[in-house]
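Justification of computing resources. Each target in the renewal requires a structure prediction run like the one illustrated here; the chain below, 70 residues long, is used simply to show the kind of job we budget for.
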Amino acid sequence: LITTFMPNTGIRIKPWNRIDAQVYTLATSADGKGNFNLCTYITPISMKPKRFIVGLYKGSRTRSNLEKHP
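Resulting structure tokens:
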């Protein structure tokens, strides 16, 4: 295992701290309650128009916000 550090910080970069996948963000709001979600379960479903499917946990505020305001 090779230990590497972030430049000029002294912070060690561990292999499990690196993500090898795209990460998207999803912001929602309903009833005055906002939520911001980091999403990794994203799949493209159309090129034109560009559309994606997002996988969300059933018990999350993001999902309930989206159900109120699709």
